[in-house]
Known about the structure:
Strand order of the largest sheet of chain C: 1-4-5-8
Number of domains of chain C: 3
Oligomer: heterotetramer
CATH architecture of the largest domain in chain C: Up-down Bundle
Largest interface: A-C, 51 and 49 residues
Shape of chain C: globular
Helix content of chain C: 40-55%
Amino acid sequence: MALDEAFGDEVRRWLxxxxxxxxxxxxxxxxDGFWGGRKATGVDPDVLRWRDMMAERGFxxxxxPRQYGGAGLSAADARTLDQxxxxxxxxxxxxxxxxxxxxPTLLDYGTEAQKRRHLPAICRGEIRWCQGYSxxxxxxxxASLRTRAVPDGxxxxxxxxxxxxxxxxxxxxxxxxxxxxxxxxKQQGITFLLIDMETPGVTARRIALISGASPFCEVFLxxxxxxxxxxxxxxxxGWTVAKALLGYxxxxxxEAIGGQLATSEAQLVSGARRHLGAAAxxxxxxxxxxxxxxxxxxxxxxxxxxERARQGVQSGRAPGPESSIxxxxxxELKQRxxxxxxxIAGPAGLGWEGPGFxxxxxxxxxxxxxxxxxxxxxxxxxxQLDILARRVLGLPSGKExxx
Amino acid sequence: MALDEAFGDEVRRWLxxxxxxxxxxxxxxxxDGFWGGRKATGVDPDVLRWRDMMAERGFxxxxxPRQYGGAGLSAADARTLDQxxxxxxxxxxxxxxxxxxxxPTLLDYGTEAQKRRHLPAICRGEIRWCQGYSxxxxxxxxASLRTRAVPDGxxxxxxxxxxxxxxxxxxxxxxxxxxxxxxxxKQQGITFLLIDMETPGVTARRIALISGASPFCEVFLxxxxxxxxxxxxxxxxGWTVAKALLGYxxxxxxEAIGGQLATSEAQLVSGARRHLGAAAxxxxxxxxxxxxxxxxxxxxxxxxxxERARQGVQSGRAPGPESSIxxxxxxELKQRxxxxxxxIAGPAGLGWEGPGFxxxxxxxxxxxxxxxxxxxxxxxxxxQLDILARRVLGLPSGKExxx
Amino acid sequence: MKLILDEEQAALLKTxxxxxxxxxxxxxxxxxxxxxxxxxxxxxxxxxxxxxxxxGLNLPEAYxxxxxxxxxxxxxxxxxxxxxxxxxxxxxxxxxAGALMxxxxxxxxxxxxxxxxxxxxxxxxxxxxxxxxxDVCAIxxxxxxxxxxxxxxxxxxxxxxxxxxxxxxxSARTAGGRSDREGVTLFLVEAGTPGLSVxxxxxxxxxxxxxxxxxxxxxxxxxxxxxxxxxxxxxxxLRQRAAAAVxxxxxxxASAAYEQTLAYLKERVQFGVPIGSxxxxxxxxxxxxxxxxxxxxxVLAAARAADDDPAAFPELAALAKARASELVIHVTNEAxxxxxxxxxxxxxxxxxxxxxxxATAVAFGDASFWRTRWADLRGY
Amino acid sequence: MKLILDEEQAALLKTxxxxxxxxxxxxxxxxxxxxxxxxxxxxxxxxxxxxxxxxGLNLPEAYxxxxxxxxxxxxxxxxxxxxxxxxxxxxxxxxxAGALMxxxxxxxxxxxxxxxxxxxxxxxxxxxxxxxxxDVCAIxxxxxxxxxxxxxxxxxxxxxxxxxxxxxxxSARTAGGRSDREGVTLFLVEAGTPGLSVxxxxxxxxxxxxxxxxxxxxxxxxxxxxxxxxxxxxxxxLRQRAAAAVxxxxxxxASAAYEQTLAYLKERVQFGVPIGSxxxxxxxxxxxxxxxxxxxxxVLAAARAADDDPAAFPELAALAKARASELVIHVTNEAxxxxxxxxxxxxxxxxxxxxxxxATAVAFGDASFWRTRWADLRGY
Lengths: 403, 403, 380, 380
């Protein structure tokens, strides 16, 4: 028996024996799970027990080094672990931007002290992180950000405003880009800072979207003192760190969409059967039928591409700016899916809330509106296409400033 | 009875009495007719008789002034004339770039001597014109043309190469853009020249296209002496003249497409009936059916838009860069129509020539290939969209050089 | 076919644009939503519109109307569409008064049309049911003969302005089963009739709609609108007119969303330049402009044909609705995308346009429905 | 499912790419066309490919094959597709040898497969007729029992490589009418059999096809391929494999056309800059890249499933063919447009790609056909 098979067997037995029964079969997406943090309340005790037992073995961040709370597993063993979790339908024990974004960034760019302070807390889901990149005047042109950090002794004093910060109001820490040298060329005066949300001067406020309530916040920073020890990378060298993190974000968004799409064909077909009054057989509206097939084929091709990229990485290829493919294709796919869902619903898809509208249709309508943001957030499709054209296809840069 | 009704009645009687019977009912498009010129051979005597009687009354260029061979008609009377011609299915008596492009340009920019020399000959179809704009290195970036004209006494000596010159081998004269000041900024060193194709040093050679034989030629100019009197507009001021002429060309292309599209829905439906084996009733392939409807709707909307623009001009609005709409929409429409025609034909649309392929299908396949040029010739769609964005929508110019 | 406006029409459009901009800015739609206004539009403003002659635009002078055509009404609707004006034109003028004009007796017309023209009566068409989708004949509500009159039972869904209608035009089966073309009959039912209940619904576009429930509602013989069993044909005629009318609203909506986006492209700076200087966005904006112009011609032609060329109207209505439906979705999607994050916020108006775009695209048949109808009309 | 190449497969692909670039550049296709070559491909090159083991790639060792899968064959076809290689892989290897392997008797296999593997025998499937469109059962040719054997009559259209085939696999009805699923029977008919005549056809892609006419062609009982009347099922199986195979060719074709276009975007200067610096073209090029990558995954998956996962194969073949068909048309349209005028000339190779793209998009069912098939397979 090979070593990795032994690992799989051991994990399987351990899970079968110990994993909370109430959580088995509840797995949905990679980002449905315990987001953790100091502000989490009313959490199911089984979820906490599950978190504890997984964190204990380093399985919440299986490939991270053991000294920082991970399990030091190889990519292959991590995949085995995930397969065993999937077999029992177990959700991830901890989820969030700590694990997917700031954690990997600290592993690459953090000081030893930063790693020791933050990574174990992330693995245990004790601290929830949010991302402070965008500003009202700095959307696609992220490097034009204006939030300023002025040195003051062994600290910086930060003033400015961030926007599109998901769950800032539920988070404990924020990783932020701030301008530390206003005289330098755009990208060169930026610093990457970690800020405790409990520091005086930090406030967060939710933003209402066209689809209704949202997890997005504005974050206001007024005279916030941040110790220099909380700089990641070099002062004025934050852009390098930021770009690396954006790479993690893009592949995360692609993978997340891959997960969400798995059941879309069945849902669309059952929606069409309901709305067309056709319980079985070929759908009586051939145009809708064809649209559902197109959607299903797009999704299958997308899932196969994610899988191919994964296999490529496993066999030693470095992941590159191709993650822009995943971001562009995945976000548009998701938009088309919800566009199609409301098209299928027809007049029944015009509801905002009850009475007279089915719950599924109401959800589809909100998701349709919400999905319009998919091609904006995490770097617009336009920016992703620019990146693809320049960095992957090697097309020459135009004369537009700064891109 | 109003004056214009009287004109209509008179024209109707005149046509009914004199128009050649053999030509009645043969009208197709605005550009199917007698192209004229010194090289025209084997022309039906009725066509010549028709040309003579129409030219006699100035009806080949009805809105041009009488002294240059036109009839001096108002736009309304010209339209009445056209309606009366259409009523009897009579083709235009003379067609060609003389009437549609260089004639209007000379009316606006030509010297009195040029008008007197060229316009009457155009009205009588004695001289056939071709257009020498594009060069191998100057496609979309027309102003980067390299054909040089060097002053030599009261003439210019021209050297260079033109390309995409339709029917250069059958034409008598060419209107050309040449560079007269290589030191000036691109657009400012260009002159608009009229050149007799019989001048020593001019040769024309046909180009084969992906769709087979084509009317396009390369024109080689080697030491061609052109009298200064054949400059239209100012020396080094040719760009202004050229742009005006491009405006005529665009609206001509749009109108031409409008005419060609009139029968497309019926043709596509009958093709589908033949290929699907469905003599009557709803077409059994709903996806093709929907595609035919989309095409038909696009064409109807396009025709209505041309009509609306025409009415706008008649009521006093100046035609503007909106002609780019016609060019972009019309050329893409035509491409989609032929794309659809070959899709309808399916395997039967793969023929290049007989045996085993129907004549209609062979034609569709050639037209499909030929139609790929529609979005390139006469200014690419990309250039038209640039023009629309800048001149009509008023969007700011990017930093790309020269556009 | 005349596709441009004459002087009077141009003046009417100008007045309407000005009125809508001054009296009915989009902010009003937001206020009505945020205050959960019980009416959902302004009765005072409706009255004012009636005084301007807009409500009775298509009605005979005898009933207080000005006997103008659908073309003129479409100019008002286009102006309203630009500002998402929520007043009950579609329900009361196009559907309600339209049904009365097409099939009402003199007595019915005399009773209702003057009140409509004066802006005093709201009329709603209570025909579609929860499962009707785009089939006007898919009606399960029943009308049973009861002496001289009828008893109506059933449930109608998304009845436009049903929540405040003084008069409901109710469809119900006197014969046949769901989706049969024959057997649908129309009835006039006044608000407050026993057995009638109305529940307001909340739609994505904030527009006013209601569930209308009929439990053994008794109506007299005078309530019959048109011949018994022949309602489907009338419903189809009404839908066709409504499709053309809402296409004009959509044209206004799309134009306004487009213009706001174009302005944003010129004003928003990123990378040191207005984002409208980026060629990829320029080309997309130019393509939207082309689509808008093609749709505009189609809408004008349909409206004109409604008045002057009844033979051409069915096809042109199909053309206008199919094109306008795809246009509004395309334009509003691009509008949000080009605005970026701010376009997604409820703070900006673009979201209101996107939601109303969806509702209008679906109303009276979506693009796919009208394309199929075109093929039917053209015999293939 | 493994979607990346192992070392041996990568080596095979590399060899094939190199061979195609050296021995079969696109210029060869042009020469074959311009010289009106009677064969339309090179028998010598085919023999060389056979020596490399490519022709017998899927055949058992007993017949001189190397027992590799469709996955490996697809790598060869992709490499060939890049250069529009006209050798008879689809006709002889996928359809011809495929039919013999699937339904042939030992004697039939022994008689033909070794000759195929050695590159000495060309086999063609003569099944589609002028009106078949995408229906493999739409067959009107008839086979009548005649003693032990049959008499075949009918006309087959666009028989790939039929003009030089040593063996034709002919479908004919022994029962039923046009489009009936039952009643189609397959026969082996050798070149030169009396009553058989072959007329070469000229296709847009310059590829080899022929009309095959059968006038009372007598064949013995040994000519029967598979059970009488059961031919449709076999034809469907063959079509599915052929669809996956031609998708690999299309992937190569699209990749090459794309790469040539990308190179042109970097090299062609207008307005003082390479046209590839214009953002509108950049975005379109990037979108093509995405489409290519998505199609690549689909084609690899289909080829892999053909060998390893028969249950998943039908869906994945449908996916691959539908995507690749839309891809090649999209890519070649954009390739011509981005090349501008020069792209329209016969002088450039892009036109060859566009024409072959059309032929492959239509071959074995177009995108719409395979989308419908997907819905059938998925039960909706």
